[in-house]
Specification:
Elements (H helix, E strand, L loop, with lengths): L2 E5 L2 H13 L4 E4 L13 E5 L7 H16 L5 E5 L13 H12 L3 E5 L7 E4 L2 E5 L5 E3 L19 H8 L5 E3 L10 E3 L4 H11 L6 E5 L2 H9 L18 E5 L4 H9 L4 E5 L1 H6 L1 H16 L4 E5 L9 H19 L3 E5 L1 H11 L4 E8 L2 E8 L2 E2 L2 E4 L8 H9 L12
Parallel strand pairs: 1-3, 1-4, 2-3, 4-11, 5-10, 5-11, 9-10, 12-14, 12-15, 13-14, 15-19
Antiparallel strand pairs: 6-7, 7-8, 16-17, 17-18, 17-19
InterPro entries: 4-carb_acid_sugar_kinase_N, 4-carb_acid_sugar_kinase_N_sf, NBD_C, NBD_C_sf
Keywords: ATP-binding, Carbohydrate metabolism, Kinase, Nucleotide-binding, Transferase
Family: Belongs to the four-carbon acid sugar kinase family.
Length: 412
């Protein structure tokens, strides 16, 4: 298998899936290790995990299990997909720890990192990471209005060599723009798309197997080095008039503004404490949404920014997933839109589709996914907290209700 990727959440995994599929590869996303029969006809495949929210002990167990399973497929190129803002900490979502365990399990000695993703407004220069903010400006990551105050893994270091060393990746060699890498491990600057492509060409001649850490820019680099330049668009989607259920576990300022700007949805806030506690308030919220979906009205349910006290992000994501999956089973919406990486991962895991396929795009970084699991055919869109313009939810409504996603890419 030419291209295999492991993602630390479902939002990022769906973006890499879309990047590969739009280049013309037959690609598919799984929730866990696939069987060999599941890979027949595929050019690329990936596994989406909840690693972004894990502390060290479950991270080690997950990486060891996946490493053992993937070693049987002996991929030439393994992509560890992480958030384009690189937010992680030694104790939570430590992707370097995961990379080291995977590389040991697969016998991969060469590790590289591609900084940022210019196609999404993430830029790396002189080893320093910058990201576009909800204000449209580009900020150094440790001064970013959202990522510098992330509730779980705030970014307090913009020097990526220092940040990655703190996570456990030592001795990184910086590959500046226009330069050729020498010893591994390497870190590639990526100010613009030409730098991404150059990194791909620099890595391509290596005769050794390689593990590359980064966002979907890793897929862009790999594709460019192998001559995939055209974008393959999915056909028009057939008409779908079903109501849209949107759930926002992300409490970023951008997602909050997008919810406030949504004109074609009913909106209902839920306090995180009520989501965890259950009880009558949560039951009322469930009934509120079910009644509106039955009337074919779109609705957004969102977690408020109230202080969650001792509630952990993982517990909140799991409680949210249970709420959403029960609502999907009762109301059968025409499509599901989820905002928030941890929340998306927990919800998709509970929905339990056998796999996910690319079915179209809502906006850069947010594809439409075709899924077919116990809940039936349910088009999904998984949005990271920093993705989309102010009109994201109304745009999602226009696209999703203008056509029902179906399996694309020649894979079924």
């Amino acid at each position: 298998m030419a291209y295999v990727f492991i993602a630390d959440d479902f939002t990022g995994a769906s973006d890499t899936l879309a990047t590969l599929a739009r280049a013309g590869l037959k690609a598919r996303l799984f929730r866990d290790l696939p069987a060999p029969a599941d890979l027949v006809g595929l050019d690329a495949w990936g596994i989406a995990t909840q690693a972004r929210a894990l502390d060290r002990t479950p991270m080690i167990a997950l990486a060891q299990r996946l490493g053992k399973g993937i070693a049987a497929f002996s991929p030439d190129f393994l992509h560890l997909k992480i958030c384009s803002t690189f937010d992680s900490s030694p104790g939570t979502g430590n992707f370097v720890l995961m990379a080291e365990i995977l590389s040991d399990a697969l016998g991969i000695a060469d590790i590289a990192v591609i900084g940022g993703q210019p196609s999404l407004g993430r830029h790396a220069i002189f080893g320093t990471l910058f990201a576009r903010g909800p204000d449209g400006r580009v900020h150094r990551i440790d001064r970013h209005p959202v990522m510098s105050i992330h509730p779980v893994t705030p970014m307090h270091e913009a020097d990526m060599l220092h940040h990655l060393e703190a996570l456990g990746l030592h001795g990184l060699n910086l590959v500046s723009r226009g330069m050729t890498g020498n010893a591994f491990p390497r870190y590639y600057d990526a100010l613009d798309q030409s730098d991404v492509e150059a990194a791909g060409h620099d890595l391509q001649p290596s005769t050794n197997r390689c593990l590359v850490i980064g966002a979907s820019s890793v897929a862009e680099a790999w594709l460019a080095s192998r001559g995939y330049t055209a974008t393959v668009l999915p056909p028009d989607l057939p008409v779908n008039n079903g109501p849209i259920l949107a759930f926002a576990g992300s409490r970023s300022s951008l997602t909050t503004a997008q919810i406030a700007a949504a004109e074609s949805y009913g909106r209902l806030p839920i306090n995180p404490a009520d989501m965890i506690a259950g009880g009558s308030r949560l039951a009322d919220a469930h009934d509120w949404a079910a009644e509106r979906l039955a009337r074919r009205e779109n609705c957004i349910i969102f977690l408020t920014a109230d202080h969650a006290g001792p509630i952990t992000p993982a517990d909140l994501a799991e409680a949210s997933a249970e709420f959403v999956v029960r609502l999907v089973a009762k109301a059968r919406p025409g499509a599901l839109v989820v905002a928030g990486g941890d929340t998306s991962s927990a919800i998709v895991d509970r929905l339990a589709p056998a796999w996910l396929d690319f079915a179209g795009m809502l906006c850069p970084g947010v594809p439409i996914l075709g899924s077919d699991g116990p809940a039936g055919e349910l088009p999904l869109a998984l949005k990271g907290g920093q993705m989309g313009a102010l009109d994201f939810f109304d745009r999602a409504r226009a696209i999703l209700q203008g056509g029902k996603p179906k399996t694309r890419n020649g894979v079924r």
